[in-house]
Amino acid sequence: MRTTIRRALLGSVLMGSVTAAPMALAAEEMIQIKGELLFSSLPALVDHQGPLSQPLIFTATVVQDPEQAVPAGFFSLGADYLNAAQALRMEITGPDGDVLYDRTVDVDDLPVAADVDALSWFLFSSDAQGSDEPAGSALWAIISASEEQFIRREITLGQSIFNRNLGGLAEITAGVSSLFTDTSGYPVLAEGNYNYTFLYYDNTIDNITGAGDMGMVQGYATRVSYGGDDADADGIADDADSCPASDTRSTVVFDWNDSGVTNYAFANGCTLSDEFARCNTAANCTMKLINQLNDDGSISLEEANVLRNASQVGYHSHRPR
Predict the structure, then answer these.
(1) Read out DSSP for 202-249?
(2) Are 155 and 246 in the same domain?
(3) Domain annotation covers residue 173
(4) Residues 269 and 182 in one domain
(5) Residue 116 belongs to what domain range?
(6) What value, to the nearest 5°, has the Cα angle with vertex 122 and ends 134 and 126?
(7) How many domains does the chain have?
(8) CA–CA separation, 253 vs 258, rounded Å?
(9) For residues 137 and 157, what is the distance between their CA atoms, to the nearest angstrom?
(10) Tens digit of pLDDT for each residue in 207-230?
(11) What are the counts of helices (DSSP H) followed by strands (DSSP E) for the chain?
(12) Engineered SS bond to 87: which of 106, 114, 201, 299, CB 3.0-4.6 Å?
């Protein structure tokens, strides 16, 4: 079941498919990190090497399962775990929106005989104070070695524990006092729009042919969110939200006339006001929708009557002077 959910989560980033229902049933969680890249040594980005005169856009996705986390104790600072990181994806697009790079590593897709380390590391509190990023750092890495292939992918917010600052970009933290909101258990990142140092590393080698590449990109994250972006802050990620820019007023308002009826939110991410907005003030559509909502129990008979009257007044009468 976990594999199906993970692929659905990563697929929703790629195709905008709706996968909200399984997310609530799984221990896995998805973190999306978005921002701009200012330095590249990834061989796949052949036309974008060294310091970039024009930033590239990235979306990094981490799928992790805190319930699977096992304290590792590899490092003397911070908290590090094995087995929590389940999948890492990095997508890079150019200024014109063309996809230049898109790679995913998923522990369930790796060869059965491969030696796999799924590592997550977090630096916070007093341990972070003496680092280049006193607000904290986070790393997720999946490393796989088999007879056929070697893969190492890393996503880092803040200071690189492996000292991969090859691009020489300054460490930047702006808009957030701490990278974490909770470190009492498996650490929880602060969500929102803020600037934070970002690094992605990829080392992929075909052990049969010897062909491979190794490189990294650096820049700054500008948004961090769990479950994807949620523009209207209704708790449903935009890629699973039928109304990603919902009318979230507390009551249903028809033009200038406030009905006083609660603006209910539905499981698909739409509100009652969003549903009425689809009718574009047409009376027959509005009345049909009210009847339907009453019939399926979404609103009471009393609310239905109030909405009928309020829509007629708001849409078809002049605003009182």
Answers:
(1) EEEEETTT--EEEEEEEEEEEEEEESS--TT-SSS-GGG-S-TT----
(2) no
(3) yes
(4) no
(5) 2-239
(6) 40
(7) 2
(8) 4
(9) 5
(10) 999 999 999 999 999 999 987 666
(11) 6, 16
(12) 106
